[in-house]
Amino acid sequence: MEDIARSISDIPDQYQRLENRIHELQRQSLEYASLLERSPDPIVIYDQNGKAQYINPGFTAVFGFTRDDVIGKSIPFVPEDEKEKTAWAINELINGRQLSGFETKRLTKDGREIDISMSTYHYYNPEGGFAGTIVISRDVTEQKKMEMEIREKNQALEAALNELKLAQVKLIDKAHKTGMSEIASSVLHNIGNAINSVGIRICKMREAVEPITIDYLNGIYDLIETVRPQINLAFSAEDPQKGDKILRFLKSIISGLSQDLDTLSHHMDFLDKSISHIAEIIAVHQKYAGVSSIFVTSIDPNLPIHDALELLDDSIKKRKINVILNLQPVGPILTDKNKLMQVLINLIKNAYEAIDENFSGTEKQIEIASEIIVCEGTGYVEIRVTDTGIGISPEDLKRVFQVNFSTKRSGSGFGLHGSANFIRSQDGEIELTSCGIGKGATAILRLPITKECSHEQKDSCNR
């Protein structure tokens, strides 16, 4: 009788423990449901007959199908030319194998065909029998387009490089034999402009890829990791390692996405190196091309400043450099607009490359200013490009405009030399100042508003 009484007295405690366990399982169930609902990747749960039992909002967002459209049905989104491939995948699932990173195509509700990467996970009933499949997909349509575009650009660059090498041999030989260096200069210049456009497009691709993140998946992984023992315990009768399997499955998804991002980054790095290689070839061979014709027109010198900044906008933004413009209204000058713009591109490019080498923590800044200075009644336009870069030593300042001299390891030594030759050919002046290493630098160029002012007059200018 005492045992019976003791058992009866334990009933409330047993009931309370059972009720607590039920509440805990309900809480975990809500957490898992919340994970599925919050996932941006499409998730669908099929029963053993291939009928959809659940889809998350991510599935509706990508494919357009609602739960009313597909629950209890086979989802009609396999393209005709993908049915054989899909049949093979289904056979793999029937034979107990799972898929990870399986790439195929699917149709949206409105008939659009998209590329997806699919991973699967089997689930089982309490008796241990196969109950169905969880399928997690990822829309990789844009990624595929980007990979295709990168391959096409890569092929185009390789073809351009081969053509460029052949053209260089022919042009250099022709220049030496016939003295027609103008032809080589013009062709190299045009090729350089085309390569620059490809470089800008690659920068835009990189900006599109960089925001892609797997942090949310890592967050889900960490959350499941914290409750893995509870998951294993909750399903101990069915599958005591279910929590471990879920984590391995999620880890494979994270790893696949990370590898895809690394692959894209590798392709873009290769293209960057190829473009740099082509640019180096152009720079090396431009010294054989001579000085091309100058087409003088009357221009506002502030305009090529804006044009140069627009061409270099991606490179400047990528480095998060603050550009300050202090452009005063200046009179027109007679010069070659394109060549002046190339000079400005060289100066601005040198400025942000100098900032790249300055690791002192100084604010990244380029200031460009223009103003009129007067010399005995004759006006000159002065343009200054000031940076917070690594600076220049007093010894190097004496040689910066010499041919083949550069303070950069990858520099060709032609940019500033060619810029100085052009400015001086326009009766102008160019100089580079710096207070030393780590203290930035300022490039200054002056061009006459009219060409009557002689060099002796300019030397006595009062600024």
Architecture overview:
The chain is of the alpha+beta class. Among the domains are: about 1-35; about 295-460, Histidine kinase-like ATPase, C-terminal domain (Heat Shock Protein 90, 2-Layer Sandwich), CATH 3.30.565. The chain has 15 helices and 12 strands. The strands form 3 sheets. Strands 2-1-5-4-3 form a 5-stranded antiparallel beta sheet, with helices on both faces. The chain has a 5-stranded mixed beta sheet with strand order 7-9-10-12-11. It has a two-stranded antiparallel ribbon with strand order 6-8. β1 and β2 form a beta hairpin. α5 (about 140-180) runs parallel beside α9 (about 240-285), α7 runs antiparallel to α9 (about 240-285) and α8 crosses α9. Residues about 450-463 have low confidence and may be disordered.
With strands numbered from the N-terminus, the spatial order across the biggest sheet is 2-1-5-4-3
* CATH fold label of the domain at 297-459: Heat Shock Protein 90
- What integer value in Å does the Rg equal? 34 Å
| SSE string | HEEHHHEEEHHHHHEHHEEHEEHHEEH
* CATH 4th-level superfamily of the domain at 297-459: Histidine kinase-like ATPase, C-terminal domain
Q: How widely separated are the two ends?
A: 114 Å
CATH class of the domain at 297-459: Alpha Beta
Report low-confidence residues grouped into runs of 5 or more.
451-463
Q: Strand percentage, roughly?
A: 15-25%
Helix count?
Answer: 15
How confident is the prediction overall: mean pLDDT? 78
Structural class: alpha+beta
3D shape: elongated
- The total of beta strands comes to 12
